[in-house]
Amino acid sequence: MAERNEKVLMELLKLPGNNMCADCGSRSPEWASYNIGIFLCIRCAGVHRNMGVHISKVKHLKLDRWEDSQIERMKEVGNITAKLKYEERVPPCYRRPKENDPQVLIEQWIRAKYQREEFCYPERQCYISGYMVGFLMKRGKEDRHYQSRKFILNESEDTLKYFVRENKEPKAILRISELNVVFAPEKMDHLNSLQLTFLKDGTTRHIYLYHDDPEIITNWYMAIRCAKLHRLQIAYPSASEADLVEYLPDGFAKEGWLWKTGPRPTDGFKKRWFTLDNRKLMYHDEPLDAHPKGEIFIGHAMDGYSVRIGVSVGVKDQGSPFTLHTPDRIFNLSASNDIERDEWIQVLEKVIEKPLTPQDSSISARLVRKRTNTNSINIFSPR
Ligand SMILES: [Zn+2]
Question: How far is CA 321 from CA 293, 331, 335, 346, in A?
């Protein structure tokens, strides 16, 4: 009997839709929620279990005993049918998590689907209205302590403001259309944390935020994405929604420590934290710095950008070196091992091969203007 049930489960698992986790799409699920009737990976099964048995009842496909009625339920529903119900009204700006995405995103996606049923009842989606107000913990620019700050998101104004004191002028006004937002759990050592990145006076500024409630931080993340999508729709009325969704933030292409030389061949390698944000390669002294020490705009191959293994002539070899060629300068870089180096080369090449968008060109122009200003100051300086 038990053996027969296991056989039926293995057959069901081969059906289209059931061969991938119902929530994150990872291959070969080994678990199931037998009241909802879906096949799950181990990570998503863990989230289902945490919601409690009144929402989801979890079993292993092989290690647990299955009753006939439970098998019937799996037959009756399955991943595709469940998706039609629980994902019926997912807004286009909502980021559907994939296998390796941050835990908070996976967890809140699953809770939004089955616990809050946000995608069956769109009026429960507080992040699509274009307005959000609340308090978030924000890291100080200099003192690294987190303080509670009031934030107001206003899509029609294209602004995200934050206040040090309520009922006073905002401390900063960020433009939503120019804002990037990413989850930063490892870097900030907090599960429910966000990094906001934007251009200010020709240079990038980073802001680090968290909230103890994972639902609230995820709502802020989705609210910024939704507002960004609506601003894009205003800016590009003839573009399709599916194309515009591609421009929404979904994390940095890569981050990590690299070693970098100065502009002179005799300069030694210095350890820097590198972040590739779309076409901007930034380097910092520390991962949580408010400003990068320097930033390099990565243009298109046709404009003289390329990346190669090895250092340029006259530079001392170190670690796993590679060079980034831009029309103005060759950057000698080094990773701690060859795997890291190859990953960096791969993500940089991908950017170099991609055509520039009008937004890319605007960022490039503003970064270049900054550099020109610095140069003109040098001309008048004593040396
Ligand atoms: Zn999963």
Answer: 21, 10, 6, 14
Residue range(s) of every CATH 2.30.29.30 domain in the chain: 126-245, 254-356
Centroid of ligand 1 to alpha carbon of 47 (angstroms):
9
Query: What pLDDT shows up at residue 376?
Result: 38
User: What amino acid occupies position 227?
Assistant: A
Per-residue pLDDT reduced to its tens digit, 10-20 = 999 999 999 99
Burial degree of 37 (CB within 10 A; 0-12, 13-18, 19+): buried
Q: Start-end ranges of CATH 1.10.220.150 in the chain?
A: 2-122
The CATH code that applies to domain 254-356 is 2.30.29.30
Cα of 201 to ligand 1 centre, how many Å? 42
* Å from CA of 30 to ligand 1 middle: 10
The CATH class for the domain spanning 126-245 reads: mainly beta
pLDDT in tens, 314-351: 777 788 999 999 998 999 999 999 999 999 999 999 99
Q: How far apart are CA 301 and CA 348, in angstroms?
A: 11
Name the class of domain 2-122.
mainly alpha
Query: Tens of pLDDT along 179-224?
Result: 999 999 999 999 999 999 998 888 899 999 999 999 999 999 999 9
- Let me know: does 93 contact 225? Beta carbons within 8 Å: yes
- What's the gap in Å between 31 CA and the centre of ligand 1? 9
**pTM attached to this predicted model:** 0.91
Quote the ligand 1 centre to 45 CA distance (angstroms).
Answer: 7
| Ligand 1 geometric centre to CA of 7 (Å) | 22
Average pLDDT over residues 53-78: 96
Tell me the average pLDDT across 254-261: 95
Report how far ligand 1's centroid is from the alpha carbon of 24 (Å).
4
Ligand 1 centre from 43 Cα, in Å? 6
